[in-house]
């Protein structure tokens, strides 16, 4: 993809009067992360404020974090909640990936607490309710944040909480056969004790532990577990060693003791939080946020095949093909797509039968939505993924890998491409790249 001509940067990569893709004018730097920078920007037409995260493709590729960035995009697309930062658009140039997101004008909740020292319980309850509502939405869609902390909780112009930064998040597809996640991640002062044991953990339970740390910090003005010596810090977390400040109410102490329970089996659940005395106290009547089914950006169908939406259709179109966002520019993998009226399961079965004829190994994805094709030498030949477009139609995507060698290329040309054309029904040739012509 060509670099837009209207992007100019200084030597230190801080933009000066930059307009991205003729749509977003960058204003000021908001923060710097491991892979890029976040800017405040405005839309060229309406002057609406947005946040633009510019991620370096070379840093992502060289660091082996392509899957993490791709997963973050996938997760943010499926989440749609008033207390979660919205992802509006993903754009890319030859060197960078741009996340265009909702702008939180109020900044980090961390700074709001730092200015006041600590929050009164009513104020803390207001934010905590919104945090739990957002978390319930995430968990209902099989998303576990894994890095909840004051730094990742933002405020909009009306003072409402917005959960951000899903870069370390996990989804149910990453759960191992033992029913647990195993990746060690998170921020030391917020990490749950079971993560330290390195024996696997429940993503929902570790999120609730982090919520307990957040609530404690909001109302105490300091973290429950903190030490300059990491070994000592982890020992305190593992043993659950902390003290309540004298000004905390007994109801709040009880809730925090349930959230910061070192035993994940007895730790409080979200449903139990909704029944908690402190959570439901206060003069304001709490009403949980209800997310309409139609508002969910994307999700999995009951059969496990992913449903497409407007975002996906745009992503497949020319110039915004996300299939190329994470590939090495020197790579030569080929991607082709068709629309078919054949049932998804039947498509996978037909691909499997074709593979068996040529002694190609087909490995189904755990959610049933796709499969990998490998040669007898174990090298990857290609990927087949089926997306649900409507009740009657699906999109079949096939991606060839150069690692398959000559035999893989022959299998692709002589077997898979003809099958793709056959699945397309009346279409004589498969659609490649431009979804708008389907």
UniProtKB/TrEMBL annotation:
<dbReference type="InterPro" id="IPR018451">
    <property type="entry name" value="NAF/FISL_domain"/>
</dbReference>
<dbReference type="GO" id="GO:0106310">
    <property type="term" value="F:protein serine kinase activity"/>
</dbReference>
<dbReference type="GO" id="GO:0009409">
    <property type="term" value="P:response to cold"/>
</dbReference>
<dbReference type="GO" id="GO:0006979">
    <property type="term" value="P:response to oxidative stress"/>
</dbReference>
<dbReference type="Pfam" id="PF00069">
    <property type="entry name" value="Pkinase"/>
</dbReference>
<dbReference type="GO" id="GO:0009414">
    <property type="term" value="P:response to water deprivation"/>
</dbReference>
<keyword id="KW-0723">Serine/threonine-protein kinase</keyword>
<feature type="domain" description="NAF">
    <location>
        <begin position="303"/>
        <end position="327"/>
    </location>
</feature>
<comment type="function">
    <text>CIPK serine-threonine protein kinases interact with CBL proteins. Binding of a CBL protein to the regulatory NAF domain of CIPK protein lead to the activation of the kinase in a calcium-dependent manner.</text>
</comment>
<keyword id="KW-0808">Transferase</keyword>
<keyword id="KW-0547">Nucleotide-binding</keyword>
<keyword id="KW-0067">ATP-binding</keyword>
<dbReference type="GO" id="GO:0019900">
    <property type="term" value="F:kinase binding"/>
</dbReference>
<dbReference type="InterPro" id="IPR000719">
    <property type="entry name" value="Prot_kinase_dom"/>
</dbReference>
<dbReference type="GO" id="GO:0005737">
    <property type="term" value="C:cytoplasm"/>
</dbReference>
<dbReference type="InterPro" id="IPR017441">
    <property type="entry name" value="Protein_kinase_ATP_BS"/>
</dbReference>
<dbReference type="GO" id="GO:0009408">
    <property type="term" value="P:response to heat"/>
</dbReference>
<keyword id="KW-0418">Kinase</keyword>
<dbReference type="GO" id="GO:0009749">
    <property type="term" value="P:response to glucose"/>
</dbReference>
<dbReference type="InterPro" id="IPR008271">
    <property type="entry name" value="Ser/Thr_kinase_AS"/>
</dbReference>
<protein>
    <recommendedName>
        <fullName>non-specific serine/threonine protein kinase</fullName>
        <ecNumber>2.7.11.1</ecNumber>
    </recommendedName>
</protein>
<dbReference type="GO" id="GO:0004674">
    <property type="term" value="F:protein serine/threonine kinase activity"/>
</dbReference>
<dbReference type="GO" id="GO:0009737">
    <property type="term" value="P:response to abscisic acid"/>
</dbReference>
<dbReference type="Pfam" id="PF03822">
    <property type="entry name" value="NAF"/>
</dbReference>
<dbReference type="GO" id="GO:0007165">
    <property type="term" value="P:signal transduction"/>
</dbReference>
<dbReference type="InterPro" id="IPR011009">
    <property type="entry name" value="Kinase-like_dom_sf"/>
</dbReference>
<dbReference type="GO" id="GO:0005524">
    <property type="term" value="F:ATP binding"/>
</dbReference>
<dbReference type="GO" id="GO:0009651">
    <property type="term" value="P:response to salt stress"/>
</dbReference>
<feature type="binding site">
    <location>
        <position position="53"/>
    </location>
    <ligand>
        <name>ATP</name>
    </ligand>
</feature>
<dbReference type="InterPro" id="IPR004041">
    <property type="entry name" value="NAF_dom"/>
</dbReference>
<feature type="domain" description="Protein kinase">
    <location>
        <begin position="24"/>
        <end position="279"/>
    </location>
</feature>
<dbReference type="GO" id="GO:0005634">
    <property type="term" value="C:nucleus"/>
</dbReference>
<comment type="similarity">
    <text>Belongs to the protein kinase superfamily. CAMK Ser/Thr protein kinase family. SNF1 subfamily.</text>
</comment>
């Amino acid at each position: 993809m060509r670099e837009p001509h209207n992007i100019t940067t200084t030597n230190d990569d801080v933009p000066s009067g930059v307009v991205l893709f003729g749509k977003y004018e960058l204003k000021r730097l908001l923060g710097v992360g491991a892979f890029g920078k976040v800017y405040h920007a405005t839309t060229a037409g309406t002057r609406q404020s947005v946040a633009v995260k510019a991620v370096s493709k070379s840093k992502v590729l060289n660091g082996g974090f392509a899957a993490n960035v791709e997963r973050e995009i996938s997760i943010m697309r499926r989440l749609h909640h008033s207390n979660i930062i919205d992802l509006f658009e993903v754009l890319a140039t030859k060197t960078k990936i741009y996340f265009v997101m909702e702008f939180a004008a109020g900044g980090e909740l961390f700074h709001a607490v730092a200015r006041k020292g600590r929050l009164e319980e009513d104020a803390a309850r207001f934010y905590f309710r919104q945090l739990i509502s957002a978390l319930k939405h995430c968990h209902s869609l099989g998303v576990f944040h894994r890095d909840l902390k004051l730094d990742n909780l933002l405020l909009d112009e009306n003072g409402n909480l917005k959960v951000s930064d899903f870069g370390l998040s996990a989804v149910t597809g990453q759960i191992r056969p033992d029913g647990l996640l195993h990746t060690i991640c998170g921020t030391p002062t917020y990490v749950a004790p079971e993560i330290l044991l390195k024996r696997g953990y429940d993503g929902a339970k570790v999120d609730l532990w982090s919520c307990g740390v957040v609530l404690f910090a909001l109302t105490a003005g300091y973290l429950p577990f903190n030490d300059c010596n990491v070994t000592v810090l982890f020992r305190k977390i593992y043993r659950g060693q902390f003290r309540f400040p004298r000004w905390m109410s007994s109801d709040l102490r009880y809730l925090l003791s349930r959230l910061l329970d070192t035993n994940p089996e007895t730790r409080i659940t979200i449903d139990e939080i909704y029944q908690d005395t402190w959570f439901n106290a206060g003069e304001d009547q709490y009403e949980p946020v209800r997310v309409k089914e139609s508002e969910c950006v994307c999700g999995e169908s009951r059969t496990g095949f992913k449903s497409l939406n407007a975002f996906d259709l745009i992503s497949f179109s020319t110039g915004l093909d996300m299939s190329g966002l994470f590939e090495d520019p020197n790579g030569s993998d080929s991607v082709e797509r068709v629309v078919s009226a054949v049932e998804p399961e039947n498509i996978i079965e037909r691909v499997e039968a074709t593979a068996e004829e040529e002694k190609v190994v087909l490995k189904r994805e755990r959610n049933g939505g796709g499969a990998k094709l490998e040669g007898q030498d174990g090298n990857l030949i290609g990927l087949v993924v089926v997306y649900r477009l409507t009740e009657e139609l699906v999109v079949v995507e096939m991606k060839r890998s150069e690692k398959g060698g000559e035999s893989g290329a022959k299998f692709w040309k002589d077997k898979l491409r003809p099958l793709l054309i056959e699945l397309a029904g009346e279409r004589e040739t498969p659609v490649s790249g431009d979804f708008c012509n389907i």
